[in-house]
Every structure is written in structure tokens, then in C-alpha cells.
Amino acid sequence: MPWVRYWPADVPIHVDYPVVTLYDRLRESARKYPNQVALWYEGRELTYADLDSLTDRFAAGLQELGIIKGDRVALYLPNSPHFVVALYGIFKAGAVAIPCNPAYKEEELHHLLKDSGAKILVTVDKLVDTALNVLSDTSVGKIIISDGLDFLVKSNDLGRRLGGLGVEIISLGDFLESSPSRPKDVEIDAREDIALICYTGGTTGTPKGVMLTHYNCVVNNIQKITTWKLREAGEVLLIYLPLTHIYGLNWCLNTGIGIAAKIILQQRFNIEKTLEAIEKHRVTIFYGVPPVYVALSRHPEIKKRDLSSVRIWMSAAAPLLPEVRKRFEEITGIKIIECWGLTEAAPCLTFTPLDIQEVKPNLIGIPTIDTEVKVIDIETGLEAGPNEVGELVAKGPQVMKGYWNNPEETSRVLKNGWLRTGDLGYMTEDGLFYYVDRIKDLINVGGFKVWPAEVENILLSHPAVLDCTVVAEEDEYYGEVPKAFVVLRDEYKNKVSSGDLIGYCRERLASFKAPRYVVFVDEIPRSPAGKVLRRTFKKRT
């Protein structure tokens, strides 16, 4: 473990984890801090006692509807208290939650509902039409629905408005009011029983359902709590990241509930509302993705805003550009912690220690507590040497149980407890890990391997380039060649040509790595988590 030299002196390398469920941690927070604010949303609050009571009712209501241990219940909701109440109610009923991104259209939603076999769908009225159009060949028999604004109050009008649509519609407010106050006890094995099926792979193909047990999730929460000394009932978290994504769901929400944090919940990122929330609520931990740090660092009045309460700035989901990191850290005086992981690891596997003097591009740091990471040759499977690029593989108690209904893919990516991440990277001689790219994005130029990120980093070093991505373009002679899509800075538009950028790359890269084509675009589309949606560019090639 060469990375031990970077291990924080006050953090243990091993922790004994409690074998408990996610809802056990909510109940413990409610028992110890009943009057502590759990959720603040649009000016209204729920305490931990409120949240525990509402989730009990939701769980009991599900049981009254026939939900038993292991049944799947889908959440097609934006960030809201309804999402949190439904999520923990599902857990308490012994069921499995299926988060569905509210941005999903019919085809995407249909795949998740059909593949998971969800029996109940929880949603809001503005999304119900999309849902109703895809239910015919799924297992969904009931929809629990709110109007998105009622903050869990009774809503008789909703049932009348949507009645007679061929599926049983239940108003969330009525559902909670009529449900028993306590659910029946369900025996849950936290190590083995699934809490979540989170679908991943949406940036590149048909999503696969990642099965995460209660233990997987709790372990990753405690790894984070221990590493950064999170204070019980002493933290204020701001969550605008989608709760349907593992970063927002487990890394942010579940961790916060487990330490009785005050959680400021927003539907989405809005820079003014975010800054206002930090100042008003004295937020202590900020979870970000690269596009958010870009927006914050460019805000014209960012230096005038009071960000002094934030003691931890965290970034994940995609690499943070060095210039963005530098600019933001100069503003706040606090280093950004970058984490690397994936849904299959609930999600965190590595972090950047705060005492590293120089954070180089694409550094992902060292493995988190009780976690092993190594690099293997993508062709032989043998462990790679220092500075040799290969596939990052990981092992730890947070690693998923497998893929839902997909034993072949499970056996492919899980080998003797080691998770094949599909990410390329390398480890330096002193034990620091660096991210390179996704294996599936590798460009094969006549047998030579080209990593898009390497070409992108060269392009981004050109003063005219604001953003870019590189994909494979089919070529009759070489098979594939690199093709770059570039966003120019305003002051360079119509002043820099594609030939200029190709020449710039050829001066700094082997000729086969330099892009054969450069296309100028207005923006680089990204997922809500900040990852480049390469598929949109591959369709243009």
C-alpha cells in the first residue's frame, strides 16, 4: 500500500461497521435528536421526529397495498420532501427503491419500470402523463401521486382529477392520512438484502440496475463520516444534486440523515439560490460537480458573498479542470476534495488528501477506508506497473452485490470481489492514482490506443479553447481517428481555425493522437452529474 504515506494521520485505515439498515440510522437520529431540523425545503421544515413518523406511515401504507419484502417501488420524482419520505418508507417496508430520473422520457422510464418489475410508482402530477403512457406492459398497478407543491398535505382534488385513467391513482396526502402509524416489522439482513437498484450506463447505452445492499450504503456513509470528521447533529448540508443519482442519494442524503444533519434541499442548481442558502443557513458541507464550480467561480460577485461557514468543498462525478480548481480555491482559501467512484461502489472509492501540495490534473488520490484499488492490463488482466495505464479495479465492503437480472454482466465485472470499473488510470510510484478515461471511449487508430482525455487536455491548454471533447470517427484506412468538438472562448471566435488547433496538437502529441478533424460547437452537453455525453457527439460523426 504505497499510498499510506499520504494517509491522513488522524484517520483510521480500518473501521468496524455496524450491520444496520439505512432506516435504522434514521430512527437513531430521530431518537437522539427529535427536534433537529432534518429537511428545509422552500421555507418549510421537517424535524427528524416528523420524518421518522411520516416514513413509518408511508411504509405501513405500502404494506396495506400488498407490498412485501423484496418488492420494488419506483420513485419518479424531483428533489423534494416527498422523495425522502417515500424513499425511507420503502426501506422500512422491506422493499427496494428504484430511483428514476425525472428528466427521463417515455422510453427511458419504460426500461427501468419493466426491467425492475416495480409494482408501485411514486410521482408528481406534472410527470404522470409520461408514466401512464408506459405502464401497459409493466408490473406497475398503482401510482402514488402528489401535486409537487403540497408538502405532504391532503389533496383530494388530485384523486378526482386523475381518476378513471385505467390505473389506480392514490393521492399522497390521502395515502399518508389513512395509513397506520407504524409498519409491521420486517426482518432485514443488512449485508444481503437490497436497499436500492440504481440504474447506470445512461451516458453510453442501456442502463443496468446496480443492486446496493443496506450495508453497502451504510459503509460508504461511514467511510466518509470518519475521513472528514463529520459532526453528529452539527453539519448543514446543501443538496441540489439529483436524488435519483447515487452521488445525491447515498453520498449526500443518506450520509446526512445518518448523522442527523440539517439538510437544505433544492430541486436543482440555481446559482443565486445556492449562494443565498449557503449564507442564510450557514452551510458547512458543499457537494459539487465541475459545472457548478465553473459557475460559482465565474459569478461576478462571488468574492463579496459570505462562504465562510463551508469547511468542506467536495467535487465528484467528473474531473475538475485545474484552472477551475485554482480560481475557486483562491476565492475560498479552502482546498476542494475530489472523489472518484461509480454507482457500483455506492459510490466513493478514492479521495484527494488535503495535505497534497500540488494537485495535478486528473488526480483521484488514494483509496478510502477499507478499500483496495489497483491497475490491471486491459488485455492480460495482470497487475500493471507504476505509471502504466490500465483498468482501475477496486475491492471493498461498499462494492455492489451485482446487476439486477444480469448475471452475465455481473460475472464479467466482479471477479473474486474485485470490481472492474471500466475506467482507465494509473498509479505513480508513490501510490497516487490518476484517472485517464473510460475504456469504452478508447480510440483505436490502426492498432494504436488513443485516450480522448489526453487529447482533450492538450486542447484545453490552448488559450482559445473553453471546453472540448474528443470521440472516435470511423476511417477507411485507420479504422478510427480522433475527432474533436471544441467550444471557443468568445474573444477567439472567428480568429482561430480548426487547422490551428490540429497543428497545435501535432506539435505536442504523436501524430496518430492529434485530432484529424475539429468541429466548433456552442456547448458540450453534460449529464446532471457533469459527465460529458459523448454519445451525442458520436451521433454527429
Automatic annotation (TrEMBL):
Residues 26-404 form the AMP-dependent synthetase/ligase domain. It holds the Pfam family AMP-binding_C. It comes from the Archaea. One of its GO terms (molecular function) is CoA-ligase activity. Keywords: Ligase. InterPro entries: AMP-bd_C, AMP-bd_C_sf, AMP-binding_CS, AMP-dep_synth/lig_dom, ANL_N_sf. Residues 454-531 form the AMP-binding enzyme C-terminal domain. Belongs to the ATP-dependent AMP-binding enzyme family. This is Long-chain fatty acid--CoA ligase. It comes from Caldiarchaeum subterraneum. The lineage of its organism: Archaea, Nitrososphaerota, Candidatus Caldarchaeales, Candidatus Caldarchaeaceae, Candidatus Caldarchaeum.
